Amino acid sequence: MTSSQESKKQELPPTAWAVLGLLSFPGERTGYELKKWADSSLRFFYWSPAISQIYAELRRLEELGYAASVRSGPEEARAKRRYAITDAGRGALAGWAADTAEAGPPVLKHGLLLRIWLGHLAEPERLRAMVGEHLERTRGELAAVREAMEHASDVPEWTFPALALRWSERQHLAELELAEALLTDLDGLCEGRRDPGRQADGDAPTPG
What we know:
The longest helix has 36 residues. The protein is mainly alpha-helical. It has 8 helices and 2 strands, in the order H-H-H-H-E-E-H-H-H-H. 60% of the residues lie in helices and 5% in strands.
């Protein structure tokens, strides 16, 4: 590997490693197939990159020698390019996966909670409706996680992805519990607002 390639390796974003990780399982896959797999696995505990990002990372990985591709022959009505991990790519991925210093803390960006934080600008009924919508979406996601778990359960090569999906199942169950508790908190807040003997405190909800 040249010094330029080594520099690019060190600058690889997590998305590139995630795409290379999808290639680390047996078989060759098209970019479209990688996107489908990301949608049914990665998105439940990390995120699913856009198809354009997947192809951009595949090109980068090929430049580094971490992935290789072959184009389908005339026997297929529509030409496809299939990608596979190389020995160099597998070695680099194993090194990255074992480097706990690069894992970093989990990042939470909860759009619903941002709106709850701004609840003084909204009607309580609308806030409760948003939480209800969030509960429905989360139940749908939980069902999708369990479907993915079922698909992975009988495939020996997917033992560790199945562990990640099991964690995601627990996370969605916890999210449902938190959302139900938030509804209870909102009900209590609405009761407090209706209490004429209670006066709101105008101070900011942060120290200082």
